[in-house]
User: What shape does this take?
Amino acid sequence: MRLQHGVALLVAVTLLIVGYTTLAPSGLPKFWLLRQKKQNLETRVTALQERVFEQKEKIRLLSGGTPESRAYLEQIARREYGFIGNGESLLILH
Assistant: This one.
Protein backbone atom coordinates (compact mmCIF):
# COMPACT_ATOMS: atom_id res chain seq x y z
CA MET A 1 0.00 0.00 0.00
CA ARG A 2 2.81 2.38 0.88
CA LEU A 3 4.49 1.63 -2.48
CA GLN A 4 1.30 2.64 -4.32
CA HIS A 5 1.23 5.98 -2.49
CA GLY A 6 4.86 6.56 -3.41
CA VAL A 7 4.18 5.77 -7.09
CA ALA A 8 1.09 7.98 -7.06
CA LEU A 9 3.09 10.81 -5.50
CA LEU A 10 5.85 10.37 -8.08
CA VAL A 11 3.33 10.46 -10.93
CA ALA A 12 1.65 13.55 -9.46
CA VAL A 13 4.98 15.37 -9.07
CA THR A 14 6.00 14.39 -12.59
CA LEU A 15 2.71 15.69 -13.99
CA LEU A 16 3.12 18.95 -12.08
CA ILE A 17 6.63 19.44 -13.40
CA VAL A 18 5.61 18.64 -16.98
CA GLY A 19 2.54 20.87 -16.70
CA TYR A 20 4.53 23.76 -15.30
CA THR A 21 7.30 23.54 -17.91
CA THR A 22 4.82 23.40 -20.78
CA LEU A 23 2.35 26.02 -19.59
CA ALA A 24 4.66 28.45 -17.82
CA PRO A 25 5.51 31.66 -19.72
CA SER A 26 9.03 30.36 -20.24
CA GLY A 27 7.78 26.99 -21.50
CA LEU A 28 5.83 26.17 -24.65
CA PRO A 29 4.51 29.69 -25.32
CA LYS A 30 8.06 31.04 -25.39
CA PHE A 31 9.18 28.11 -27.53
CA TRP A 32 6.43 28.85 -30.07
CA LEU A 33 7.31 32.53 -30.08
CA LEU A 34 10.98 31.78 -30.64
CA ARG A 35 10.14 29.31 -33.39
CA GLN A 36 8.02 31.96 -35.14
CA LYS A 37 10.85 34.50 -34.80
CA LYS A 38 13.26 31.96 -36.28
CA GLN A 39 10.98 31.42 -39.28
CA ASN A 40 10.64 35.18 -39.78
CA LEU A 41 14.41 35.61 -39.62
CA GLU A 42 14.96 32.77 -42.07
CA THR A 43 12.53 34.42 -44.49
CA ARG A 44 14.31 37.74 -44.09
CA VAL A 45 17.73 36.13 -44.59
CA THR A 46 16.51 34.50 -47.81
CA ALA A 47 15.21 37.84 -49.11
CA LEU A 48 18.49 39.56 -48.21
CA GLN A 49 20.52 36.82 -49.90
CA GLU A 50 18.49 37.34 -53.07
CA ARG A 51 19.12 41.07 -52.85
CA VAL A 52 22.86 40.49 -52.39
CA PHE A 53 22.86 38.25 -55.47
CA GLU A 54 21.06 40.94 -57.49
CA GLN A 55 23.49 43.62 -56.32
CA LYS A 56 26.50 41.46 -57.20
CA GLU A 57 25.04 40.92 -60.66
CA LYS A 58 24.54 44.65 -61.04
CA ILE A 59 28.15 45.29 -59.96
CA ARG A 60 29.33 42.72 -62.50
CA LEU A 61 27.37 44.45 -65.25
CA LEU A 62 28.55 47.91 -64.24
CA SER A 63 32.20 46.86 -64.17
CA GLY A 64 32.16 46.68 -67.98
CA GLY A 65 34.34 44.59 -70.24
CA THR A 66 31.77 42.22 -71.71
CA PRO A 67 29.26 42.94 -74.46
CA GLU A 68 26.48 42.33 -71.94
CA SER A 69 28.02 44.96 -69.66
CA ARG A 70 28.34 47.46 -72.47
CA ALA A 71 24.68 46.97 -73.42
CA TYR A 72 23.61 47.46 -69.81
CA LEU A 73 25.72 50.61 -69.43
CA GLU A 74 24.33 51.98 -72.69
CA GLN A 75 20.80 51.29 -71.49
CA ILE A 76 21.47 53.22 -68.26
CA ALA A 77 23.12 56.08 -70.15
CA ARG A 78 20.13 56.41 -72.46
CA ARG A 79 17.42 55.97 -69.83
CA GLU A 80 18.85 57.94 -66.92
CA TYR A 81 21.07 60.51 -68.60
CA GLY A 82 19.40 60.99 -71.99
CA PHE A 83 22.50 60.11 -74.01
CA ILE A 84 22.19 59.36 -77.70
CA GLY A 85 24.38 57.00 -79.70
CA ASN A 86 26.70 57.70 -82.63
CA GLY A 87 24.82 58.25 -85.84
CA GLU A 88 21.59 59.06 -84.00
CA SER A 89 19.81 62.37 -84.01
CA LEU A 90 17.79 63.94 -81.26
CA LEU A 91 14.50 65.40 -82.39
CA ILE A 92 12.79 67.73 -79.93
CA LEU A 93 9.18 68.61 -80.67
CA HIS A 94 7.39 71.45 -78.95
